[in-house]
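Lecture 7, part 2: worked example. A protein chain together with nicotinamide-adenine-dinucleotide.
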Amino acid sequence: MSLSIPPPEEHTLKILIINEGHDQRGYREKRCAVSPSTVKRMVQRGITVNIQQGAGQLSGYADTAFTEVGGHIVEDIAPVLQETDALLCVNRPDEAVYSLLKPAALVIGHIDPFFQQPLVEALAERKLTTLSVEMIPRSSRAQKMDALSSQASLAGYVMVMQAATHLPGILPMMMTPSGTIKPAKVYIIGAGVAGLQAIATAKRLGASVLAYDTRPVVAEQVESLGGKFLSIDLGETGQTKDGYAKELTDEQKQKQQDAQRDAIADADIVITTAQLFGRRPPQLISKDTLALMRPGSVVVDMAALSGGNVEGSEPGKVVTVNGVTVIGTGNWSQAVAKDATDMYANNLYNLLDEFFSDETKQFNLNLEDEILAGCVITHNGSVTNDMLVNAYQGA
Ligand code: NAD
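Predicted complex, written out as structure tokens:
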């Protein structure tokens, strides 16, 4: 007598996208980790895509937009979490979510790992493999997966638009029989991805743009966008091997604040975009300098949620300080949630695509690969990223 053994059901990668609704700080989160276009491509690769009901709603995608391309909508995520191989998030998941994942499941999202030590350690303890999108190397090969850049570009645009709506004036020059209006003066501090996009946006709207960055190499990029670069001699500033700014000395910080005081006092709009990778952002504008600005001027503090570039900015709020409007809304790209979702979803698809094996239908976690070696921060029970381990130990 022969026994017929049914072939084992092929186990294909099962991913889950949750409806985030708000992030951990209670701010509304409108973005989603997939778009219909990426769900379609994943399904074509043989990936099972489960999406929590309503996850795309705030970025303009109804549940049906996902089901039409082969995604599955789930109401109750608890049972699905237990069989999920990869959880795709915009932010970091809550304990209620990650505690239901099976060991070795992949968690992908903006984990904010330098400032979320307890969470990262909890993820490690649960033997989850965490991939922090902030840690994806800024290399040419990883550019298509670079969520920091995609979201920062949109942030640059959004910050200018928010400043423009709060300014009691217009940005372009206007010559009319009733008089001539001069272009608004916009000063942008920090000319990385967000700053350069803010410069381009303000220029397109007709403003006169001045910008400064501690990395002198960006002067040429600022000028190519039609902005002027404020030259401040701070001595040796330099950048890290990954192209990030190094922290200034106290003397350099003071020099910068003194040198840009006139530019700030003269500006209608100031946008601060200065960040330091893995550290709190530098304070660039003191209340005394803010007091030099004309009433009605607008300051946008890109870093307001993570410590702030501007003294007096309030996380998540628009406040008035001595008549100056200080915008600290934060989470900028979600203001243009559809485009932000499309770009972020593409970043995550490109990441999966790079490491998905058509043979095993699984994510190939090759930790020798320089991209995964950089962005996988917990695996097999440990925090695996040396930079984080050192930061947690205060080294
Ligand atoms: P970031 O968000 O870390 O910082 C924003 C900008 O603030 C930077 O340009 C930084 O130099 C500047 N800054 C820091 N302290 C300052 C201060 N006190 N005053 C004025 N400016 C200050 O930077 P980012 O936009 O993420 O870009 C970081 C680097 O990565 C850049 O060199 C960028 O060109 C590079 N990058 C490379 C790729 C790639 O090759 N794939 C992609 C994106 C970014």
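The CA atoms of residues 215 and 238 lie 6 Å apart. The chain has a mean pLDDT of 93. Keep this in mind for problem set question 3.
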